[in-house]
User: What shape does this take?
Amino acid sequence: MEQWDAYNKDLELIDGIVLSRGEQIPDGLFHLVCDIIVQHTDGDYLIMQRDPKKHYGSMWEATAGGSALRGESPIQCAVRELYEETGIMSDSLTEVGKVADEQCHSIYVEYLCITDHDKMSVKLQIGETSDFRWVDKNTLLSMKNDELITERTQMFIDELKWDRNGICN
Assistant: This one.
C-alpha cells in the first residue's frame, strides 16, 4: 500500500504519522501532491489524455504529477512523477506555487519544467495516460472545462495569463 508523510497546512512535516492511500486523512492533516506543467523551449505546452478507465477518463490534463511517497521532498516527488508520466528526466523545475486544499487534505506544490526534450519521444504511463499533444499557449488557454480537467488545473493555467508585472499576456 502506498504510504505518505503527514503535513500541517504550512507544509511542515509531522513526525510519527504515516498516511496511506485509500484511508481517510484526519482533519488538520495533509499529504503532499506535486503537479508539473511542461513547456518546451519552443513555447509549446505538453497536454496528456487520461486513460479512459480513470476518473475523468479521456479528458486532457496539462500537468504530470501525483502524490509524494513517504520520505520524498516536493522536488523529489516532482522529478519522479514527471519521469514516470512523460519519460522526461529533468531536475531543473521551478516552483510556481502552493495550494492547500482542505477538502482533499492535500497540499499541491506546482512546478514549471522548461525542456528541450524531443517532443515526439514522450512516454505515456500505462493505466494513466493514453495520448499526448503539444499545444501553443493560446490553444492551452482557450481549452474549455469539458476538455481540460480539474478546476485546480484551470487555475494553474489561468496563472499563465499574467506576467511577473501583473500584466495579462
